[in-house]
């Protein structure tokens, strides 16, 4: 366990967070994928992976996927807990919109102490999710999320509620706002256009709902908690 006097650098925290987040989405965590995710060069990723391996935070061999060690997972949970609680605090206590917190939280997540994070959690009643529906790890590193499915993987007829917008991308959140779509809204999959086309959905109840066509990129970052009689692929 890292203490405040031995706090990892911002770069180390960013890498373990990215490795965990990619794995959580079911992505293969490779040097190339990390370079795209973190917007750095592949050579920079290779150098940092060597450093993380020396620190005992990852398991990685050349030409293979990267995975977090138990110590790396523990650190990732701390960073993610800090980030998601800061985001929720900005929205709940300071009046930020859910699409406005990305930049502020990126700075604050590396600056605040664990004591400050614990005080935020207590102030907010130890919440389970952040403003985008991402689950918040507990203080002991447990991350509990309700079962859900990515919209991109659902077949026509599936019905559920929007429970998560992955990554909190401000452009995605602003687009959802223009469509008047929010967490908790009823989502029904009406159809799928062929050859990787849009997923056609109804938002809201059958008689009053609004119909939208979401491309694969958007459908891939929206998670739906299915109704008991909803279907998945």
Task: Tell me about this structure.
The protein is built from eight helices and eight strands, in the order αααββαααββαβββαβ. By secondary structure, the protein is α+β, with helices and mostly antiparallel strands. It has two domains: 145 residues, Arc Repressor Mutant, subunit A; 78 residues, SH3 type barrels. The strands form two sheets. A six-stranded antiparallel beta sheet has the order 3-8-4-5-6-7. A two-stranded antiparallel sheet has the order 1-2.
Which features does this protein show?
233 residues; disordered N terminus; alpha+beta; SH3 type barrels; Arc Repressor Mutant, subunit A; 2 domains; 6-stranded antiparallel β-sheet
SSE layout and pairing:
Elements: H1 10-24, H2 31-38, H3 42-54, E1 58-59, E2 67-68, H4 70-94, H5 101-108, H6 114-123, E3 149-150, E4 159-165, H7 170-178, E5 186-192, E6 199-203, E7 210-214, H8 216-219, E8 222-226
Antiparallel strand pairs: 1-2, 3-8, 4-5, 4-8, 5-6, 6-7
Helix pairs in contact: 1-4, 2-3, 4-5, 4-6
